[in-house]
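Retry 2 of 3 after timeout on previous attempt. Resubmitting structure tokens to design endpoint.
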């Protein structure tokens, strides 16, 4: 069993993060800190403060998916746990995740119960979901945590801030797509995994706390991030969605596209979203090549994939806005 934490100039987070990782009750594991080209003295500090943690250092920052891919290559275990540096895990997190994989051989990876670090009664995600309109969502995002999320469940994907994968998943599906940089690369991997029959199990007892924008305000996203997210949404669809589902979902995808563009225009972000779509066109030839490779390896039918893709994205967005208001109010 291998656990690795990806960090880039994140020394301020590592005391909490690594202390919680080293305190895991599941002891048959190696712990690796992937230093993604940090310049803040991370390597020396970790080697002195946490001698049981092996540091694998990159001389240059390879971005999030590049750093994660390097971390996967350093791991020796048959299970690979990936963690952000801005998290705190409960002592049972690793053991509960491994137990779920051992109990469910059809599961290729697990999704954690991720709560907000600064608002610990609220969720960041209880598994990732994907909608017919072509948009993802975090299950339970900003909801007050409670019994509705106490049961294990099959979900579409896992947030790679805290997820555990079987090694054979990476052997079959490949690693994270480095073209995605730091937006939706984990969802893209989840999509490709589902296409090859690797299911994702939400483990409610695998709890972590994640520092997700609670002090900065929810929804305050920079234009550069908006551009990357909306570019990657289309790259993900083009790569992964089977042709039969393109035909079935196209009317709803067009409705979703119209709603998103209208909302962007109202907020002065229309130009950013149009630049994102221009970048998609510029990458179209290369993306279609990736699509052919992904679809050639697909082992499940379009009908089976349709059964795990969610409906009612517009209702999801309405609920998210309501819970965002509640979360903002509770901060004030």
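Retry 2 succeeded. Sequence:
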């Amino acid at each position: 069993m291998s656990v690795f934490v990806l960090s880039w100039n994140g020394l301020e987070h590592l005391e909490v993060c690594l202390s919680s990782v080293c305190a895991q009750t599941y002891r048959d594991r190696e712990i690796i800190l992937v230093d993604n080209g940090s310049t803040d003295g991370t390597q020396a500090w970790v080697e002195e403060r946490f001698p049981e943690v092996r540091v694998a250092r990159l001389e240059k920052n390879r971005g999030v998916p590049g750093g994660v891919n390097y971390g996967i290559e350093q791991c020796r275990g048959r299970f690979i746990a990936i963690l952000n540096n801005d998290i705190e895990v409960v002592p049972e997190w690793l053991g509960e995740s491994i137990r779920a994989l051992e109990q469910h051989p059809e599961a290729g990876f697990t999704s954690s119960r991720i709560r907000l670090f600064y608002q610990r009664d609220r969720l960041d995600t209880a598994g990732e979901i994907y909608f017919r309109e072509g948009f993802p969502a975090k299950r339970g995002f900003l909801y007050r945590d409670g019994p509705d999320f106490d049961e294990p469940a099959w979900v579409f994907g896992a947030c790679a801030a805290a997820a555990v994968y079987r090694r054979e998943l990476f052997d079959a599906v490949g690693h994270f797509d480095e073209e995605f940089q730091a937006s939706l690369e984990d969802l893209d991997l989840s999509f490709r995994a589902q296409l090859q029959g690797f299911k994702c199990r939400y483990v409610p007892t695998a709890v972590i706390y994640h520092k997700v924008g609670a002090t900065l305000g929810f929804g305050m996203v920079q234009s550069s991030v908006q551009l990357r997210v909306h570019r990657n949404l289309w790259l993900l669809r083009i790569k992964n969605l089977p042709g039969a589902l393109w035909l079935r979902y196209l009317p709803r995808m067009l409705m979703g596209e119209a709603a998103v563009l209208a909302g962007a225009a109202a907020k002065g972000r229309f130009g950013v979203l149009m630049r994102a779509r221009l970048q998609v066109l510029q990458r179209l030839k290369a993306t279609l090549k990736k699509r052919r490779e992904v679809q050639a390896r697909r082992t499940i039918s379009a009908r089976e994939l349709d059964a795990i893709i969610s409906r009612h994205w517009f209702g999801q967005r309405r609920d998210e806005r309501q819970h965002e208001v509640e979360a903002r109010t509770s901060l004030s």
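Attempt log closed. Residues 214-220 have pLDDT under 50 and may be disordered.
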